[in-house]
Design a protein that fits this description.
With about 230 residues, the protein is α/β, with parallel strands linked by helices. Helices cover about 30% and strands about 20% of the residues. The longest helix has 14 residues. Bound molecules: D-xylitol-5-phosphate (DX5) and zinc ion (ZN). The site of zinc ion (ZN) has 6 residues, from strand 2.
Length: about 230
């Protein structure tokens, strides 16, 4: 069955000085999920925020918190993010030797589990993790910063992952460089969850609803009968 398109604005591109209000504004503007980018300055060359910030913004929306952990080692922090209000916790397959164990820990906490792949990581890295995940995140930029250019070679990998997933109830998410121009490419390849940072938050609060609608329209326009 065709999965609905989900638009997940990344608060990495929000005004951090007014984060609660920004989360409420992007919710009102039509965000389906709220994408929260956690960076540790070690696995990726940037630092963002931790579980206390997540907990502080949690009361400002009822939308699903999609927490993308760019953290290594990640195991010591899973429970804190679960308690802070994460609904879906995604870890990187490159971030440690035991992703299967970490995914089991996420599910044991009652949360949905996701596995992310950097652009240079082949799909074979997650072949034996598929029964432990609810979502596969294909990075369409190298993680660490918003506003980077989309890497089109990842589309081929998305199509391969779609085939690997088969009829399992697993969504494919993309993250990085998503715009109305690139959204159709990833949706045609099999993605249904689109993270957008700069393309969602550009232009100030009055522009958010139009930004999200434009991405959604472009994504839905790319739908054929087979995705
Ligand atoms: C990158 C982050 C992304 C980022 C996307 O490391 O994981 O979620 O915010 O930003 P844009 O949409 O601007 O490429
Ligand atoms: Zn992200």
């Amino acid at each position: 069955m065709t999965k609905p398109i989900i638009i997940a604005p990344s608060i990495l591109s929000a005004d951090f000085a007014r984060l609660g209000a920004e989360v409420a504004a992007i919710d009102r503007a039509g965000a389906d999920w709220i994408h929260c980018d956690v960076m540790d300055g070690h696995f990726v060359p940037n630092i963002t925020f931790g579980p206390d910030v997540l907990k502080a913004i949690r009361p400002h929306t009822d939308k699903l918190f999609d927490v993308h952990l760019m953290v290594a080692p990640v195991d010591p922090y899973i429970e804190a993010f679960a308690r802070a209000g994460a609904d879906l916790i995604t870890i990187h397959v490159e971030a440690g030797p035991h992703p299967h164990r970490t995914l089991q820990a996420i599910r044991a906490l009652g949360k949905k589990a996701g596995i992310a792949l950097n652009p240079g990581t082949p799909e074979s890295a997650i072949a034996y993790l598929l029964d432990s995940v609810d979502l596969v995140l294909c990075m369409t930029v190298n993680p660490g910063f918003g506003g980077q250019a989309f890497i089109p070679e990842v589309c081929d990998k998305i199509a391969r992952i779609k085939a690997m997933i088969g009829d399992r109830p697993i969504a494919i998410e993309i993250d990085g460089g998503c715009t109305p121009a690139t959204a159709p490419l990833v949706v045609a390849a099999g993605a249904s969850v689109l993270v957008a940072g700069s393309a969602a938050f550009r232009g100030g609060e009055g522009a958010y609803a139009g930004n999200i609608a434009a991405i959604r329209k472009a994504a839905e326009g790319a739908r054929g009968g087979w995705v």
